[in-house]
Amino acid sequence: MTTDATSTRSDPSPGERAAALVHRVADPAPLGLAGFAMTTFALSIANTNVWGPGADAALALALVYGGTAQLLAGMWEFVRKNTFGALAFTSYGAFWIAYYVFVKFVAPGVKPVDAPVAVGVFLLGWTIFTAYMTVASFRVSAAIVVVFVLLTVTFVLLTVGAFDSLSGWTKAGGWVGVATAAAAWYTSFAGVTNETFGKVVLPTIPLSR
Q: Comparing C-alpha atoms, which of 102, 114, 119 is closest to residue 161?
């Protein structure tokens, strides 16, 4: 049996192995937030009716950037053992992919009279999910809280607009969605900038855990 320092260090503790695993994966949050922000911006601009064709851009982004890239960010958050980030990015990545599937394959087969309920139920489920994620966000950072509060308001407005076929509510949801995208972009910008510079350049104000 050897007792030298070399043999001791060759067998790292479980905690050391976990730390090494985490640090081999770069922070995926800026990627997830950027994918979410850009796709939300495109769809929200369409909902405001400022640039109607923005919906076409949103559909493409929903499959690739907001969907696939954000879903991958969620998987990497699982590796880093970040439950909040893993659930948020994986779920909203799935949301955008589901949006793509709904628009491309489901909506064309829905009767016009049934469309408000179909869209409303889809949005209502995401409103509920976002609302309880907002509660959890109060243990992450002030920047994330702003994103989730705005996103909850966005979903509420869009859900009401969908169920009642009221374009005014949908348009309002679009404008709040633009603000949500701006908040998510800022948080992504802060994450990548602070990480790259190795110091706090843009504050996100971490909250106590």
A: 119
pLDDT digits (tens, 9 = 90+) for 160-184: 999 999 999 999 999 999 999 999 9
Distance CA 125, CA 100 (A): 16
Least confident of 9-18, 49-58, 98-107, 132-141: 9-18
Q: What is the pTM of this model?
A: 0.89
Domain borders along the chain are 26-197
Residues facing 206 on adjacent strands: 141
User: Tokens at residue 161, please?
Assistant: 């607009």
Asked if residues 115 and 107 have their Cβ atoms less than 8 Å apart, the reply is yes
Burial call 193-202: b when 16+ CB within 10 Å, e when fewer: ebeeeeeeee
Q: Which amino acid is at 146?
A: V
